[in-house]
Amino acid sequence: MQQHLHILGICGTFMGGLALIARELGWEVSGCDANVYPPMSDQLAAAGITLHEGFDPQHLPDDALIVVGNALSRGNPAVEAVLDRGLPYLSGPQWLAEAVLADRWVLAVSGTHGKTTASSMLAWILEDAGLAPGFLIGGVPLNFGVSARLGDGNFFVIEADEYDTAFFDKRAKFVHYRPRTLVVNNLEFDHADIYPDLAAIQRQFHHLIRCIPGTGRVFTPAGIPAVEEMLELGCWTPRETLSVSGGNADWEASLDDPGASHWALAAPGGERLSVSWGQRGAHNVANALGACAAARHVGVTPAHAVEALERFAGVRRRLELRGEVGGVRVYDDFAHHPTAIASTLRAMKGAAGRQRVLAVIEPRSNTMRMGDHRAALAPSTVDADAVFWYQPRALGWSLDDVLAKSEVPATISEDIDELIARVVSESLPGDDVLVMSNGAFGGIHERLLSALADAPQLAS
């Protein structure tokens, strides 16, 4: 009898990827969500997975194992129906650990920033080396075209998220994965809706470290106080350090140009390699360094890893070029934390040279809505030539103070049409428009490209 999995919150990046893997395993898969939009909805539809809009209990099948996403809480009608009807349920990370990861060599990429890109790089390096890894990533690597797959080999690459697991399991998701290879990209305060302070997040990372065998390997950036404090809680696994442009580390990278399109890799043992690739920014070099190091732990040489990186196509919604009109390029990026905003703008500015970078930003994450990052927002945009802030109704606080402290020209719009009109009126041939949000942002990218096509100053 075919097994049936019904996923509550199926259009999240993690849960959608889990659905794709379950289909590969031969499960019947269905699910529901309140927010259904591409790219995940397109992937699910292409895999033949039935989607229901909303959380109506009538969509709950009686013969299914229910997987509950971490965005759902008590009071949700589907959750209440699962409990009332006594349906079997578990979390996504638990299902993945039991059904997929138990017999695999798990390579996990963790940290506040860069998880999606670094795990995409790592999966591609292993793929290019013929290892046919499985993976589950919180984005769509363009080399694969999907965010998750079962894979044919022994290795599984996972983006290891520190967000909590489910309403009934408040541990970080990544403690379920039991990796043998772990990359910690960085460590900052985030997820203010879950964690009261940085120490609480460090404690979760410590729980992850506790699960790694002594024959495994941990890769961390050198000289980062928050990371060092976390490791001081205990580490029983050999560690290798990573550093970009400075610091004494086992793995080092040095940039040859401001945009980081060319850089040099120094691997343990003295091997030095030159890299020329299509990615931008020092933050992506840091991602690549961790991916190269993790890949060597499973037998891929640094030389082969570098060759693969030069063919790495990037990740959807990570500095993704969405189109060009009248010499104005529109990019999409997932940046939703001040550090990520600053890193992305720095990368754009370094690659742009003299041309202008116009930033269009929606502060949308739970931590943003709570206002925990508000003091860092204005400083995060210093590399933009102009900033167009969108004030969502759900933000809960005013962006006026951010505007007052901005070192670059900035405006606030409460209406997306007004926002688009402002961006279009300021755009000139040669500009890069960088849209940053961790949501759909009202389909702004296509609407912006359409409006740019009618801008008189861009007419040929």
Automatic annotation (TrEMBL):
Q: Keywords assigned by UniProt?
A: ATP-binding, Cell cycle, Cell division, Cell shape, Cell wall biogenesis/degradation, Ligase, Magnesium, Nucleotide-binding, Peptidoglycan synthesis
> Is Nucleotide-binding set as a keyword in this record?
yes
Q: What is its EC number?
A: 6.3.2.45
Q: One Pfam family, short name please? A: Mur_ligase_C
Q: Which reaction does it catalyse?
A: UDP-N-acetyl-alpha-D-muramate + L-alanyl-gamma-D-glutamyl-meso-2,6-diaminopimelate + ATP = UDP-N-acetyl-alpha-D-muramoyl-L-alanyl-gamma-D-glutamyl-meso-2,6-diaminopimelate + ADP + phosphate + H(+)
Residue positions binding ATP: 111-117
Q: Where is the Mur ligase central domain?
A: 109-295
Per its Swiss-Prot or TrEMBL entry, what cofactor is needed? Mg(2+)
Which InterPro entries does the protein's record reference?
A: Mpl, Mur-like_cat_sf, Mur_ligase_C, Mur_ligase_C_dom_sf, Mur_ligase_cen, Mur_ligase_N, MurCDEF_pg_biosynth
According to UniProt, this protein's pathway is: Cell wall biogenesis; peptidoglycan recycling
One Gene Ontology MF term:
UDP-N-acetylmuramate-L-alanyl-gamma-D-glutamyl-meso-2,6-diaminoheptanedioate ligase activity
Q: Does the keyword Magnesium apply?
A: yes
Q: Which PANTHER family match?
A: UDP-N-ACETYLMURAMATE--L-ALANINE LIGASE-RELATED (PTHR43445), UDP-N-ACETYLMURAMATE--L-ALANYL-GAMMA-D-GLUTAMYL-MESO-2,6-DIAMINOHEPTANDIOATE LIGASE (PTHR43445:SF5)
Function recorded in the entry: Reutilizes the intact tripeptide L-alanyl-gamma-D-glutamyl-meso-diaminopimelate by linking it to UDP-N-acetylmuramate.
Query: What family does the database annotate?
Result: Belongs to the MurCDEF family. Mpl subfamily.
**What protein name applies here?**
UDP-N-acetylmuramate--L-alanyl-gamma-D-glutamyl-meso-2,6-diaminoheptandioate ligase
- State the organism of origin: Congregibacter litoralis KT71
